[in-house]
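During the first year of the project, the team set up a workflow for recording each protein of interest as an amino acid sequence followed immediately by a discrete structure-token representation. This format lets reviewers and collaborators read both layers of information side by side without switching files. As required by the reporting guidelines, we include two representative entries from the current panel. The first entry is reproduced here exactly as it appears in our internal archive.
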Amino acid sequence: MKSENRMPKREKKYKERTTDEVISKDLMTIPNAISFIRILMITPFVALFISKMYIPAAIIILMSGLSDCVDGYIARRFHQESELGKILDPLADKLTLIAVGVCLIFIEPFVLPLMVIMVLKDILMLIGGTIVIQKGVIPPKSVWYGKVSTALFYVSVVVIVSMTILNIKNELVSLILLAVTAAFMIFSLVKYAFMFFNIMREVKESEEKKTLKASVTE
């Protein structure tokens, strides 16, 4: 007699779902609306920063960061987590991060190497995400190492730029901050690369099973 307590089948780590289905179902949620607003906030931030109105620009970035925390809380508390949100929220993060980084380069060129690493990382992640989506798979949500690397970037640029504005010269501190942040960004990229290859492997296995099943039924 077969045992009734069978081991559960291994669950897939990704969802096969078309982009059209995700957008039409998940567009109208509060967290997604907040993410859209965060993207729109980038324009006034850049305008204020260029006008050397640094305090209002900083307030906008602070509001963007706080709203990012709020939208995550609302999504979890009211069960409004969505597949679109998994794409839109990190997109808002990345666009804001790039805008901040580019603006800060004009104050402190020392930030440029870190900005280059961050942009290369995001470009590679964007390419990987595009490939995954083309396979009919929604990329997984951001994980802790991605969030930590983002936080380290903000801390590093704020400290370095603040030192520059206050005319405090300490290249050792700046170098340590940049080195630690760059190292963690590279670490995050490697971890995301492993995640990408695992997803692609599971997609390949799924496609092979479907092909085999189709050939059997024929």
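The second entry, processed by the same pipeline in the following quarter, appears below.
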Amino acid sequence: MNKLSGVALVATILLASCVTEKEKSPTMPEAKIDRVVPDKVVEGQPFQQQPNGSSALSVLGSNLVRGSRIKLNGMPLETASGDGASLAALIPTEMFSKPGNYIVTVETPDGRATNALTWIVLPKTGPAPEIRSMHPDTTKAGKGFNVQPNGVSAMGIVGINFLPGAKILIDGKEMETSFGNTDQLGAVVVSSAFARAGKYKVIIKNPDGKLSPPKDFVVTN
């Protein structure tokens, strides 16, 4: 009886010691994710390709400490740590082979989960794109507009049904295009596209080959 009591006493002391050590251990600051890059991809189409041909997804946020893991629909991914503000993970092709919405979270080394963001896999094809508005839709010949820090002119287009890889064409000439969202595109407009007065046709071409109805970009004297 005394022997058992002694064992129980030792166990109690050890348990108290463990609790005390746990209480002393520092608590990690709460991690948060703000952006997924890219936040939209096309089914089966590689993105942010690595030297080995695999695709990579980046997550930006705060307190993303070393040892954290990106999870896609609850599945942990092979994750590389960054500077505390970013993480990156390789995405198996089968995970973006079908259209749909996927939930992205990060699990920190202490087992806590961050807030969730949505990652979208778009279909390879869909309805034809459509331009709703252009910014600007008119300019003076030879005069720059929406001038960027490097001196080039830029056009923004709002519409619907844009896919990653969509291109803005002005009078049939492809502009350097950036995909903002399924309803937003931007392009660097070469100076020759507004060097002389006239009406120039602007068209959006999706990767599936579908074209938007044209809109006029008016260049005045």
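For the second entry, the following points were noted during internal review. The chain has a mean pLDDT of 89. Residues 2-24 form the longest helix (23 residues). Both points are flagged for discussion at the upcoming steering committee meeting.
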